[in-house]
Write a structure and sequence with these properties.
The protein is mainly alpha-helical. The protein has eight helices and three strands. A three-stranded antiparallel sheet has the order 1-2-3, with no helix packed on it. It is rod-shaped, with a radius of gyration of 30 Å.
């Protein structure tokens, strides 16, 4: 006879397996992994109760259920960074299935559950690509910001702005004829008083004050 306790035990085992993967592969903290795995296992039980509970069909293996939970995590994640981490966790389970699948005592219910997990992950392909693109853009933006910071630092160190202070007097103007900047030598049409001063040097001088 199917019992509440049996269902609770199965859910706990699945949640525990998901939690261990989140910690070992996804570098989640124990506290966050427990909370997250419990929440998502509940979601899967609500969505696929007849398959995973063992009440209607044969009792499935906790490994196939964990794959379904993890694929659901990827499918429902809304954070780019989190999505990529969860995808890595799912892929670790898929790899384990590929390498040691014959060691698991799977039945026809497990096969249906695994098919659903594969379908979930496949339908997340566009989301994963967007997450990869967003991560790459963030990395590129960070590298560009660091490059500019380093460039400014080097210019700031190599330029004695106090010695050039007399060049930054007067009103800003613009000339149709470009001339070398009085500080760095780059071509510019911007003037400060009687001197040609490029906008970069003007900004650096103001930052150095």
């Amino acid at each position: 006879m199917f019992s509440w306790f049996k269902n609770f035990k199965v859910k706990s085992e699945v949640s525990s397996l998901v939690k261990s993967v989140l910690v070992s592969v996804g570098d989640f903290s124990d506290k966050l992994a427990i909370k997250f795995s419990s929440k998502m296992t509940d979601v899967v039980w609500e969505q696929h109760y007849q398959l995973v509970s063992g009440k209607v069909y044969k009792q499935p293996n906790k490994f196939s259920c964990a794959m379904l939970v993890m694929s659901t995590c990827v499918l429902e994640s809304v954070d780019h960074h989190e999505t990529l981490i969860l995808a890595r966790c799912y892929e670790s389970l898929a790899k384990e299935l590929e390498v040691n699948g014959e060691l698991f005592d799977f039945n026809e219910v497990d096969e249906r559950i695994i098919e659903k997990s594969l379908a979930n992950f496949a339908s997340s392909e566009a989301k994963l690509q967007n997450a990869h693109n967003a991560l790459q853009q963030a990395i590129t933006a960070q590298q560009e910001a660091e490059r500019k910071k380093k460039e400014f630092s080097e210019r700031h160190k190599s330029t004695d702005w106090s010695a050039h202070a007399h060049l930054f007097k007067g009103k800003v103007g613009f000339s149709k004829q470009f001339q070398p900047c009085s500080v760095c030598g780059s071509s510019t049409g911007q003037t400060l008083g009687v001197n040609f001063i490029c906008n970069r040097c003007k900004s650096d001088f103001e930052l150095s004050r």
